[in-house]
Amino acid sequence: MSQVLHTPPPTDAAPPAPPAGDLAALAARHGLSVSGARPTLPEYIRQLWARRHFITAFSTAKLTAQYSQAKLGQIWQVMNPLLNAAVYFLIFGVLLGTKKGVPDYVPFLVTGVFIWTFTQSSILAGTRAISGNLGLVRALHFPRAALPISFCLQQLQQLLFSMCALVVILLCFGVPVAASWVLAVPALVLQFVFNAGVSMVMARLGAKTPDIAQLMPFVLRTWMYVSGVMWSIEHLASKHNDWPSWVVPVLQANPAAIYIDLMRFALIDSFHSSQLPAHVWLIATGWALLAGVGGFIYFWKAEETYGRG
Amino acid sequence: MAENIDENAPTVIADNVDIVYRVNGTGAGKGSATAALNRIMRRKQTEKASGVRKVHAVKKVSFVAYKGEAIGLIGTNGSGKSTLLKAVAGLLPVESGAIYTDGQPSLLGVNAALMGDLTGERNVYLGGLAMGMSREQIKERYQEIVDFSGINEKGDFITLPMRTYSSGMGARLRFSIAAAKDHDVLLIDEALATGDRSFQKRSEQRIRELRKHAGTVFLVSHNNKSIRDTCDRVLWLERGELRMDGPTEDVLKEYEAFTGDKTTTKPKAKPKPKVAV
């Protein structure tokens, strides 16, 4: 069976190919480019901008597809965060009694949970952005950063639904509508940039080592508990006088705590600016720029390797 | 037509291309946890012992494709056709040599971007955007895409989720979306094998149109008839080596002799018997 037929003489009806060495020269003469090479950073940004409609359409499609088989359909977009908040309230508010000393505990808790969930699910989705979409990456050409950004955008849309639920909760618990609510917008923008940056870092790591996806839930849970999602870091510190003086500023300066506290400050009237660390907007912008720009460049550096091997 | 090829416009140049796959976790054939641990502990070892196997899929292949050509890629299973196609698309790295392209070659296939839970209509937009079309371009071609796919011939199916489609219907819509864009270089992997006879006819027609729009088309197929109908030049790959490169008839004659020779040891190489149309 493995009888090797002699190779038939090459036919020359097709345009005679120049000898192998000249092919590179031929390519250069006609301005052909090497297939699959990484574009320069400005070119990459331009390509990404050109695909912005794909990014938004993809994230919206993912969001819609999520509940398309459920009978209640898109109502789950709001139901989900509400149920989530109810569970946390039951455990931390009623059973553990964490609320002692925190005014407006329910709005405090729910804001924390929603804002934290935004960061958490963005990072989780980012970790699987490349490794979970290999089919897409192997079939179509587009700047791969579109994937993690698109997943973060999906989480942002999800959060906007949650925010609608949050407004209802705030009003129910007697938190007055205030001008400071406008501050929620810049806070969200900064948080989105931060999330997208971290997602891109995780996407590159997850593409190379899929095992990271198994590890992330534990890392994220630890991060959640030190970020004061369910309790006030300040209150906790006042109960532990033996803590070294640097612990509280460090806990409060971690990006998750910063974005959560900014949102609480914006929305809840009993959460005063004195509870925020100094230069809070500066720190929030710094984290966003560091993660956003750094993450983007880090991700781009491995652009040509995604989906291969 | 091989005669009116513009000598001055090569679109794809493959220069001595080698492609090697590395497959992880083949170690001593054990996928157990201890084997994995072992692999990590003894990092500095030969690739073979550390569980990485190399598969040399394409060996020293060179060719030049010109504007307006339709090139068929043939060869028995596992001869490296699809691998070569992916490398031309820039989706697989080459081990040595280089592939130069004019513009961005695209694999015909938007399957991965489409979502079964969404309606056909939304998938047309999603697929189009994924291929890099603008919203306006898609809007313009929307009706054309739907009509071409024939999805609505049996009722209003385009507004139903794609998961409710039969596999044939799904394949038709996918081909229609993918073929809606004018590609510089279009790479098709056995796409014509799907759909019923009338749809195959239409897809062949569409591929001819795409060629007229000055692109180059590569077609991988085991169906010698569709190669004959659409291609004027054929590359024959066997065990990763370019065995023959020439006009369709010449190459196919040799290829058929070659496979015909093999069918005596293989049970039925030809695809399913044709049902009367």
Automatic annotation (TrEMBL), chain B:
Q: Could you tell me one molecular function GO term of this UniProt entry?
A: ATP binding
- Keywords in UniProt for this one? ATP-binding, Nucleotide-binding, Transport
| Region (Disordered) location | 258-277
A Pfam family per the record: ABC_tran
Q: CDD domains, from UniProt? A: ABC_KpsT_Wzt
Q: Which SUPFAM superfamilies match?
A: P-loop containing nucleoside triphosphate hydrolases
Q: Where is the composition biased (Basic residues)?
A: 265-277
List the InterPro entries. Answer: AAA+_ATPase (IPR003593), ABC_transporter-like_ATP-bd (IPR003439), ABC_transpr_TagH-like (IPR015860), Bact_Polysacc_Export_ATP-bd (IPR050683), P-loop_NTPase (IPR027417)
Give start and end of each ABC transporter domain: 41-264
Task: Give the family per the record.
Answer: Belongs to the ABC transporter superfamily.
What name does the UniProt record give this protein? ABC transporter ATP-binding protein
Q: Which organism is it from?
A: Streptomyces justiciae
